[in-house]
Amino acid sequence: MSGTVHLERDGDVAFLVIDNPPVNAGSRHIRKALLEAIEAVEADASIRAAVLIGAGRSFIAGSDIKEFDLPLDPPQLPAVIAAIETSAKPFVAALHGAALGGGYELALGCDARIAVPGTVVGLPETTLGIIPGAGGTQKLPRLVGTAKAIALICPGQRVAAEQALELGMIDALAEGDLREDSKALAVSLVGGKKRIIDLPVPQDSQEAIASAEKKALTSGRNRPHIAAAISHVKAAGQKDAAEGLAAERATFEKLRVGAEAKALRHIFFAEREAARGRPERSAKPLPFRIFGVVGAGTMGAGIATAVLQAGYPTVLVDSDEAALSRAKGRIDAALEKGVSSGKLSAAAMKAAQHNLTLGFDLSALADCDVIVEAIIEELGAKQKVFAELDRLAKPGAVLATNTSYLDIDRIAEATGRPESVIGLHFFSPAHIMKLLEVVGGRKSSEAAMATGLAVAKTLGKQPVEAGNGFGFIGNRIYAAYRASCEFMLEDGALPHEVDAALEAFGFAMGPFAVADMSGLDIAWRMRQQQAATRDPASRYVHIPDLLCQAGRYGRKTGAGYYRYDEKGRAERSVEVEDLIIAESRAKGIERKTLSREEIQSRALATIVNEAGLVLEDGIALRPGDIDVVLVNGYGFPRWTGGPLHWAGQQDPDRLMAACAAFAETAGLGKRRADLRALGILGPAGQPA
Ligand code: 3H9
């Protein structure tokens, strides 16, 4: 990315057109060209006002994150903004597409902001482990107040122009042509300046600020950059403006080169790379307009909701009338929630409801371009559905299964068109969870896979391409992790100790709290199906089976690894702890206390090892894809960059030793990944 700024004239108004495809990121070339253009405006007496506007699809999506690993070349963005603020001429920011981060800060340096409806504005820097570095924390509070600025900046909220106008983040919506409207606004300002930095910060009550602060810290998982953002926002207006700006910049610079910011940049680019799938694929996605979903259970209803929210006609089929009517209720409730939370307009909800067709028979899917099967996890049942779909679906339709661990090839075999069969593995709740594994079978065509990736993007999901192996990427690694945590129960830890250690590492929830939430019976059924083919040399922990036999299926039965009170709060269970200790004794294992560090080390070594095996087996295309899966679908802390980025930052010898120790505890028959050959670890003595 390099970029330039074109200086165009329309009468006595200058247009500074920022041109740096694809998203006009604020690279050093852009900063330099902008500063030169601002100086040219200042020097030309025939120009009375100026408009900053973006070429292509966006204003400015933010500073160029690719430059953030190195010292930033001058001129810096604050210098560009200072040139606008010290100019005697008014500048208008004309926004479309995205005006984010440094892009929105540039707009905050102008004398007015006008946006095309649908533009997104905001300061998403915290999602990259930093704080705004060009005045965002000092100027936004002057427009919206301290409490609201905390609520916007800390989660990195992106705000649609219509709402931004209500909040005062922009001054006007463009009703007609953006150029015409911004020119009129610029002309109306001639002779005056309206600098935000000169405004006072509106007074908020201490309670409102404290409540915004508490909320931001909790949802920001108490990360240091969230605390820093709060402190700079609260300092706005308290002291000299220049001092506030300089302090903000210093914190931005410090955080920018820190480990968490680096890890978050890694995930940012890994997500985009994952969405492209196999790099050598040239096949284009097939056109899709109408979707079909088979199975009106929780997953089917969630998938239908996701598709309807994206604006597509959807046919939901199930032979069970009661299931269909329950699904309709769930879909309506999810859409209504979308409206009440401001994610969906009332008109979009009406359109979505209108777009839903319910059917009892698979023949209702004859016109669908993409059909997603979401029935029970049973190969025979799925094969039956696919044989029917083969007969009924139109030629070229993509036939997808939502299976989470069955063999896609066996499912495809049931059809005469295995090239059209792929896996679309949604995560529950399907209309909320971002991750979507797009799974290729042996015969899946490149066009079908490209369609799967395109469908995911259209639904606002994060696609990751996966190969056809048991559990694909995520469930395979998670199963190994969970097994490793079960070994720890036999070896001496208790469920709450394992959960606490892994939550302290940053997991959203510990493995046993997760197991209780998702239901122990599902994994139990899977283990029963696998019993005949299980490697007898592998270490098998009976504890979860014993819990299921005792009717402890997790939260839904009020008991699992923990007991749940009437308010749903988890408590330790003496019965379970006795059962665990008895199991250790029965196996002749001498229980030892496992420290927090030991628990973390064993769990992470397992994840990294299994991730390495997933790469060796060709199930994932690249290490970054695994990071994207674990972060987006399994609660792995995003600020570590995912397990393999994390592994690359560790002392390789220590990590290898942890992997060796893990292999011991995992019992015979456990494969070790060659992490060095995979490039996950660097040479001894230094991280990769
Ligand atoms: C900041 O501004 C700090 C300031 O406070 C500091 C002031 C001193 N840089 O997402 P897409 C690339 S921090 C570099 O697929 P979409 C992206 O990698 C920044 N590259 O498109 C991709 O490249 P490729 C705050 C960037 O339509 C291509 O553009 N800003 C940047 O789905 C298309 O991206 C943000 O955090 C960037 N800033 O979504 C906003 N942005 O084709 C980050 C994008 O090679 N950006 N690229 O894979 C976004 O949220 C989305 O890209 C956007 C478009 C919504 C704009």
What characteristics describe this protein?
single chain, 688 residues, alpha/beta, 2-enoyl-CoA Hydratase, Chain A, domain 1, Rossmann fold, N-(1-d-carboxylethyl)-l-norvaline Dehydrogenase, domain 2, 3 domains, eight-stranded mixed beta sheet, six-stranded mixed beta sheet, binds (S)-3-Hydroxyhexanoyl-CoA
Task: Describe the protein's architecture and organization.
The protein is of the alpha/beta class and 688 residues long. The protein has three domains: 4-257, 2-enoyl-CoA Hydratase, Chain A, domain 1 (Alpha-Beta Complex); 291-472, Rossmann fold; 475-666, Orthogonal Bundle (N-(1-d-carboxylethyl)-l-norvaline Dehydrogenase, domain 2), CATH 1.10.1040. An eight-stranded mixed sheet has the order 12-11-10-13-14-15-16-17, sandwiched between helices. The longest helix is centred in the last third of the chain and has 21 residues, at 596-616. The two termini are 26 Å apart. The mean pLDDT is 95. The structure holds (S)-3-Hydroxyhexanoyl-CoA.
Strand arrangement in the largest pleated sheet: 12-11-10-13-14-15-16-17
Q: Write down the Rg.
A: 28 Å
**Strand portion:** 5-15%
CATH topology of the largest domain: 2-enoyl-CoA Hydratase, Chain A, domain 1
Q: Bin the helical content.
A: 40-55%
Total DSSP helices: 27
What structural class should be given to the helix and strand makeup? alpha/beta
CATH fourth-tier homologous superfamily of the largest domain = 2-enoyl-CoA Hydratase, Chain A, domain 1
Q: What would the principal axes of the Cα set say about the shape?
A: globular
Looking at the overall shape, the CATH architecture of the largest domain is Alpha-Beta Complex
Total beta strand runs: 19
Number of domains: 3
